[in-house]
Structure formats: structure tokens, C-alpha cells
Amino acid sequence: MQSMNWDQFLVPYQIAVDELKVKLKAVRKQFKSQNDHSPIEFVTGRVKPVGSILEKAKRKNIADHELATDMQDIAGLRIMCQFVDDIVHVLDLLHRRTDFKIVEERNYITHQKDSGYRSYHVIIEYPVQTIQGEIPTLVEVQIRTLAMNFWATIEHSLNYKYDGDMPLEVQERLRRAAEAAFLLDAEMSQLRVEIQDAQQVFRDKEMNVKTD
Ligand code: 0O2
Questions:
Q1: In which band, very low, low, confident or very high, does the pLDDT at 204 lie, cut at 50, 70 and 90?
Q2: How many A from CA of 29 to the centre of ligand 1?
Q3: 115 CB under 6 A from ligand 1?
Q4: Which residue, 10, 170, 163, 145, is CA-closest to 76?
Q5: What is the atom index within ligand 1 of the atom nearest the CA of 116?
Q6: Which of residues 196 and 161 earns the better pLDDT score?
Q7: Which of 43, 44, 119, 145 has the fewest CB atoms in 10 Å of its CB?
Q8: Residue 3's pLDDT band (boundaries 50, 70, 90)?
């Protein structure tokens, strides 16, 4: 790994993250400009730090020359949604785009991880235009609700704190917290239906007043 020129290697990943952040934020802006509910609440992105790349490469036995193909989350985007249904909408929007190719999907929402982790992962191949020409670059897009993100952020910090050796009691608490996050998502989805019903009743009333 000593001979790797990391600055050079990471250039396309940084470009991919920067460009995709702008593009995904533009999706939100379009919904807002139409006065519609945006399925995207906010977007974040990062390039994996070199230390984390090295740690993961060692753990997964990935050689330098295999990084671009075998480590799919060097560039990472995260799309946060208010409601679980919004995730389906975001997926549909991603599938319909022509500026990248979806190469893999991992559904950790229907297939929750043992830790309690829930999120939908989409691996895309994004063509980055560089001064050396086009470089197809893998990017992991994680799509999750605000509740899923809250849980994952806390769990990630605790994992870091315990360096992967989390006490069983903490693991159990996290599983209970994951269950609570799941219930919160379910309640919010229910509430969403209520809100939409209320808006429909309001619209219907307005129509009646106009036709009376
Ligand atoms: P970061 O940048 O610190 O978030 P692996 O890395 O072995 O777990 P793999 O095969 O690379 O998994 O792919 P996966 O599981 O689709 O994606 C890995 C990323 O998903 C992780 O990145 C996390 O961001 C997220 N993730 C997966 N499982 C969990 C989990 O149990 N808890 C939390 N909080 N996040 C999870 P990294 O590598 O942790 O890097």
C-alpha cells in the first residue's frame, strides 16, 4: 500500500461525490418548486478516509489493484427520507436516470442486519469526466429514513467506541432501539396517510363551496 498515490486515486471519487450531491439536491429543489412533498429530505456525501479504506481492505483481503472494483463504498452518498414510502419513490427516480448505471442493490430494510441496521443500498457506476478521460466510478448510495439514520449514526459511534467489541447489554439495547425506530417509522407512515386524508377532505370542501 506504500506506493499508492492516494490523492490521485481518490480524485474521481471526490468528483463523483461532489457532482452527485448537486444532482440529488436538485431533485429536492424541483419537488419544492412544484410545491410537492419531496421524497428527499437531505443528502450527505463523503469519500472514505484512507485509514478506513486500508482497514477495510485488510479485513476483506482486497489488494490495491482490486480496490476500484471490490470496495464499493469509497464514494458514498446518503439520502435521507421522511417516510419509508419515500425510499421507494427515490429508488424509482434513481432507476429512471440515465446519467449512471445501477449495478447492485442491497435491501437491508426487508432484510434487516442482525445488528438492527436498516437502510437500502444502491451501488451505481457513475462516469466521471477527468482530464485523463472518462473513469467509471462505483458509488454506494444509502437510502434511509430519518429514524433509520438516527439509529445507524448512534450505533456507528458506539461501534467505534467499543472497537467492534460491544458489550452484549449494549447490543441488546441497540436492538430494542432499532425496534423503536421501526415502530416510529410505522407510526409516521400512518400519520402521513392521516395528513393526506385531511388534505383531501379540505380540497373536497373547497370544491363544494365553489359549486354551491
Ligand atoms: P462508513 O463510511 O464509516 O459508514 P461491511 O463494510 O463489511 O459491513 P459491505 O459488504 O462493504 O459491508 O457493504 P454494506 O454492508 O452494503 O455497506 C457498508 C456500509 O453500510 C458501512 O460502511 C455503513 O455505512 C453501513 N452499514 C452496514 N452495516 C451497518 C451496521 O450494522 N451499522 C451501521 N451503523 N452501519 C452499517 P462502513 O464501512 O462502516 O463505513
A1: confident
A2: 29
A3: yes
A4: 10
A5: 31
A6: 161
A7: 44
A8: confident
Ligand 1 center to residue 57 CA distance, Å? 13
More confident residue, 206 or 55: 55
Residue 107's identity, in one-letter code, is N
CA of 159 to the centre of ligand 1 (A): 11
Nearest-CA residue for ligand 1 atom 21 is 73
ipTM of the complex as predicted: 0.91
From the centroid of its chain, how far is CA 20? 12
Q: Determine the Cα–Cα distance for residues 32 and 181; give it in Å rounded to an integer.
A: 27
Does residue 140 carry a catalytic annotation? Answer: yes
Q: What is the spatial distance between Cα 152 and Cα 143, in angstroms, rounded to a whole number?
A: 12
Q: What is the largest CA-CA distance in the chain?
A: 79
Is 90:40 a contact under the CB 8 Å cutoff?
A: yes
Higher pLDDT, 212 or 70: 70
**Domains of the chain listed by start with CATH number:** 6-146 (3.30.460.10)
Q: Which grid coordinates are listed for 118? A: 436498516
Nearest CA to ligand 1 atom 6: 56
Closest CA to 12 of 141, 129, 99, 123: 129
Question: For the residues 27-44, what does the mean pLDDT come to?
Answer: 92
In the numeric block, the cell 449514526 is attached to 153
Asked if the model's pLDDT at residue 149 lies above 70, the reply is yes
